Amino acid sequence: MAETHSLQDLRQAAVASKVFVQRDYSSGTICKFQTKFPAELESRIDKQQFEETVQTLNNLYAEAEKLGGRSYLEGCLACLTAYTIFLCMETHYEKVLKKIAKYIQEQNEKIYAPLGLLLTDPIERGLRVVSFLHHAGLSVPW
Amino acid sequence: MHLGVEEPIRECQYNQICTHNSSPMDTPHTKKKKIKRKWQVFQGRNKFYCNGRIMMAKQTGVFYLTMVLILVTSGLFFAFDCPFLASNLTPAIPAIGGVLFIFVMGMLLRASFTDPGVLPRATPEEAADIERQIDTTNGPSGPGYRPPPRTREVLINGQTVKLKYCFTCKIFRPPRASHCSLCDNCVERFDHHCPWVGNCVGRRNYRFFYLFILSLSFLTIFIFAFVITHVILRSNRTGLLSALKDSPASVLEVVVCFFSVWSIVGLSGFHTYLISSNQTTNEDIKGSWSSKRGKGNYNPYSYGNFITNFCAALCGPLPPSLIDRRGFVQPDTPQPAAQTNGSGACPSNQVQSHMAATNPLLHSQTVILGGGAPLQAKTSLGGPCSTLGPSQPSLPSSIPGLSCGGELMALRDSEIHCHHHLHHQHFISPEETPSPPAALPCATHLGHHVHPAQLFDPASQDSLHEDSVRGLVKLSSV
């Protein structure tokens, strides 16, 4: 198959290979991603590593959406100030999103970049998917 | 994204607000020609103001009516009734009235201008990935092709919930999300589309909507009660007729308030019930969690007691907007494919008719862009493309090409739609020609960094044409 493709095809095939990890709605509408190990990554990364990354992300999102004293306080305070307080400070959710972005960057630097993978931040995909982008230059993937 | 309540509500002209809210990045006009903000290429039927900070539905006429009614009635109250009441009863009355009025206006503006929780459409790769998953789960298509069922079932808290596939947004809708046909967007926790507020009511602005109708009920009752008090007190002194003559505005206020009270208080009551049971208007109307549907049918999202439901709805964390309105369109990120089909018609027919419609356009476009080169490319692809044939597109190396081909077709379509939207939305400044932004990403997605000015690069035309041919092949195999 590979021999009939032109050089352009190979290049675009390598750059564009993405693996998507979809949302897991079994706990309701909270943001949670499936920890099922996708088949396409089998040769690329360790299953344990993958599960750990996704589980940490899930925990972080759960923290962002947690209902508790802190979020209620923030909500009430915001309501009382007619939501103008958010001109000065960030919402809790936004703070956690920043934490998540930092975590993803760390993971990319330490673990995924050496393997030729790039983990994208789900917020850039509307919290629909976590995608692993594989760029391996001109090699034909798997 | 975060608005102060003092924002001017009149329909802002794009240029006017630009200077008011200008940031260092906005001022150079030449830069704006090349780099667009994401709201300018947004696929839904929404209107944006203040350079993407404000987001509303397309039809905003009724919203202005709401504003006028509230402003006029409150204005008349403060002008004609309050002086009498302040001097004869207590100045606390106009003070409380003032606070209520400001709160009502604040909540109304917040509900109208906030992104209700629109889900961004799937990028072409995601859409292709989902298509592939659906195809593999349904097996190879035999003769008499039937569209695969586009639903997934999920068990949430013991209840089976069906997730539907949205053909417009190309995603499996999360639970409680729904596609608003007026705005042409999928909205999270979709409650309803409110014309009075000029926007959808969804996850991100439901609390503002609820607080708006609640505070408006109080304001209406407040004005109604005190106008009646005013008239009664005056008529005690001078008789009813002369009291009405002295303060004619009171009659108008009473009439408006009387008719509003029933609907608004009723609506507040209804939404109080919905919040306490953690349902959306959509779910309630469909009777999704009604016990009449069957024994053991309950709402899996409810927290159990109404207090927690209330707190979660009103004081829970406010998620940020998922559509990055004010971000810049990156030249190398693929834009979501937009196939705006209003009805949920049979998908394969819809897709094929769309493709058929865009085919002539595509061919004419490639002729314009390309030269002699595309013809050569076509013949050389005859070999490999025929091998793809009717087999399922599970060959990994060919998928990105196929998806690009497929997405190119869709993107051409979206280009047309983009023009449509751009014409409808008034914010485009005259000097900006509606360049095809959606067509760019496919070319760049292939690794060529195509800029609008560089669209006529021969190398990218080749790849564009190759992909378009592949896309045609995929469809013909289907």
From TrEMBL, chain A:
It comes from the Eukaryota. One of its GO terms (cellular component) is palmitoyltransferase complex. One of its GO terms (biological process) is Golgi to plasma membrane protein transport. It is found in: Golgi apparatus membrane. Pfam families: Erf4. It is a lipid-anchor. Keywords: Golgi apparatus, Lipoprotein, Membrane, Palmitate. Residues 19-130 form the Golgin subfamily A member 7/ERF4 domain. Belongs to the ERF4 family. May be involved in protein transport from Golgi to cell surface. The ZDHHC9-GOLGA7 complex is a palmitoyltransferase specific for HRAS and NRAS. This is Golgin subfamily A member 7. It comes from Sinocyclocheilus rhinocerous.
